[in-house]
Amino acid sequence: MQLRYDYRLDVWPRHQIALAKAFGCARVVVNAALRARQDAHAAGEPYITDAELSARLTASKRTPERAWLCEVSSVVLQSALMDLNAAYRNFFASLSGKRKGPRVEPPRFRSRKDSRQAIRFTANARFKVLPNGKLRLPKVGDVPVRWSRPLPSKPSSVTVIKDSAGRYFASFVVETRPGPLPQAEPVVGIDLGLTHFAVLSDGTKIASPGFLRRAEKHLRRRQRDLSRTQKGSHNREKARMRVARAHARVADARRDFHHQLSTRLIRDNQAVAVEGLAMKGLARTRMAKCVHDAGWASFVNMLEYKARLYSRGFHRIGRLEPTSQVCSTCGVKDGPKPLHIRVWQCKWCGVWLDRDINAAINVAKAAGLAVTACGAQVRPEPVPAQRGEAGTHSKLCQEEA
Fold it and tell me: Which residues, in sequence order, are CB contacts of 181 under 8 Å at separation 6+?
């Protein structure tokens, strides 16, 4: 499996100048190729092939007007063209229906004001990790790297990224085979929420960190300082960088929380099950800020790829599964309930159920996992027999995934 390993770069001023030049050259090449294809389409001419674009790039580097393209690595320019070609292929596949998921928009022009700038060096560029820990990039130099962990194997490519906060990162693509983890007995269902970020089927409740909510006061102050600066001034650029760094700290804290929690769940359980949620629909409600702050989609994606990486079971059940309406003890569907009801009693078996824990157990059952309610907050209580109890077993609503 191919994975990305990201590391922070400590670039020096000369490295910043060389990288800015590489970002600009890659931007010019992509915009020129995109303009050529758009002009050909508007004139009714045939589609310009990938090979022809590459030949045009090679020819343009010999002209006096574009001779400065030779000041950066040719691999950077060819990789930028490959990214444009991949964007076109994804766009055409989305139009024809071959690509599943949301519709892919056509490629757009790059700008020097984009919040993210990136260039890629493949193995043909002969980049190298030196014994002293620096990363040698062609026509850039030896860049210091903050090695937070060792690379598991020799990287096949490296992407240098500059984010909106002015930070530089090196993203290595490596082939890794970590192998399966030791066998673990428990299986767990996960119910995602806002009050508690995740509730497990064993009764564990993980509080929602609320990184954005906690940083709102600081972000508001930084944003107010930005709005008071004059457009186009140096002070405005410095204020914009402070806002970007504040948002980056929030995003980094959220990402670290997702990584630690997903790793712990995959390590301690043989299989995990989650419920598919309509993220885009929830992001259009009055809870939009809390939904975006939780970051459920990225957390579920981490669970999925880590389960595949370490040979664990991962199950995603349908979003229409009535996990909050079905009693996890007897399986009878009790009907929908308002959000303010957090504990309810089953009318058939008399068990008191915690709404979130009951949903987590039902998530695991819908995925075909055998779970128990050990540690869950359920309290049996004798109740009068229902009139139609003799015929209830045929009406049980147990929808198995």
Answer: 266, 267, 310, 311, 312
Q: Is residue 236 part of a domain?
A: no
**Is position 191 annotated as part of the catalytic site?**
yes
Distance CA 268, CA 271 (A): 9
Strand order of the β-sheet with 196-200 is 205-207, 196-200, 187-192, 271-275, 313-317
Q: What does the angle CA 274 – CA 279 – CA 285 come to, to the nearest 5 degrees? A: 130
Token readout for 102 is 């949301």
Percentage with pLDDT > 70 across the chain: 92
User: 192: part of which helix (H) or strand (E)?
Assistant: strand 187-192
Domain region containing 142? 2-175
List pLDDT tens digits, range 270-313.
Answer: 899 998 888 888 888 888 899 999 999 999 999 999 999 888 99
**Alpha-carbon gap, residue 9 to 143, rounded angstroms:** 7
* Average confidence (pLDDT) over 351-370: 81
Question: Is 39 noted as a catalytic residue in this protein?
Answer: no
Question: Is residue 29 one of the residues assigned to a domain?
Answer: yes
Segment 240-255, tens digit of pLDDT: 999 999 999 999 999 9
What phi, psi does 152 have (nearest 5°)?
A: -70, -20
Exactly one of 202, 334, 354, 356 is catalytic; name it: 356
252 is an active site residue = no
Would you say residue 202 lies in a domain? no
Candidate list 275, 293, 321, 354, residue with the active-site label: 275
Residue from 191, 202, 293, 334 carrying the catalytic annotation: 191
CB atoms within 10 A of CB 186: 16
Q: Is residue 331 part of a domain?
A: no
Other Cβ atoms closer than 10 A to 399: 16
Cβ neighbors of 45 (< 8 A, separation 6 or more) are none
State the total domains in the chain: 1
Question: Which pLDDT score is estimated for 371?
Answer: 53
